[in-house]
Every structure is written in structure tokens, then in C-alpha cells.
Specification:
The protein is of the alpha+beta class. 20% of the residues lie in helices and 39% in strands. The protein has one helix and six strands, in the order αββββββ. It is elongated. The termini are far apart.
Length: 121
């Protein structure tokens, strides 16, 4: 093998490794379908884009965007599509660890139930 081929192969390998590390550490998951939700808060002190979103303590997504809308803070989050979030779900801004990192905690709520009604057959 000549020297230029070896250098080209090395550059190609390093480029692939750098791309993999950038994608891995950015928090994006390739091939995972997500749903987008909008949360409205009065205060989101310390929360930033890229922060984790947890449902019942399990990381299922991340904060995509934070902006103002009608004197409230609108937080756009992306959650894995396979995670159920019901109409009575509640979201909170919480603190994680000794460093005080902020994240969104979601209590996913309960599935809709018909109470005493039964399906007619």
C-alpha cells in the first residue's frame, strides 16, 4: 500500500469516528420516532434546551425549544412515540443531582376508563 492510500483510509476512519461521537453526545437517537408536546409554565428557572425529559424516572426524551408565548414560557419537548402520555398528565421542572441540572418530570396520568360502563356486544 502506498502512503497516500493509508493517509486517506486514516482520514476516513477518523471522520467516521468523529461523526459517531458527535451524534452520540448530542443526545439525538437515530431511528427513534418521537412525538412533540408543548408545555406551558410560569417559571422554568435553569431549564435549557437539551435537558432530559423523564416519565416516571425513565429518560424518554429531551427539551427541544424554550420560548415566550402570551406572558408564559412555552417548552417544546420530544418524547419517544412508544411512551404513553394521557390527558391528565402533569409536568414539573425538577432538579437532578448535586450540580442542580434541571429536567422535565412527567407523571403520565391514567388511561381513560369508562367507569361502570361496559361495551355492548
Amino acid at each position: 500500500m502506498n502512503t497516500s492510500f493509508k493517509v486517506g483510509l486514516f482520514v476516513l476512519f477518523i471522520s467516521g469516528l468523529a461523526g459517531y461521537l458527535i451524534i452520540t453526545f448530542s443526545g439525538k437517537e437515530i431511528g427513534v420516532k418521537t412525538k412533540e408536546y408543548y408545555l406551558y409554565f410560569n417559571v422554568v428557572e435553569g431549564l435549557s434546551p437539551g435537558a432530559d425529559v423523564q416519565v416516571k424516572g425513565v429518560k424518554v426524551g429531551r427539551v427541544e425549544k424554550i420560548e415566550f408565548e402570551n406572558s408564559r414560557v412555552k417548552v417544546t419537548i420530544g418524547i419517544r412515540a412508544d411512551v404513553p402520555v394521557y390527558k391528565d398528565a402533569k409536568a414539573y421542572v425538577r432538579t437532578l443531582g448535586l450540580m442542580g441540572d434541571k429536567y422535565i418530570y412527567i407523571d403520565s396520568g391514567k388511561p381513560f376508563q369508562l367507569g361502570n360502563f361496559q361495551k355492548k356486544e
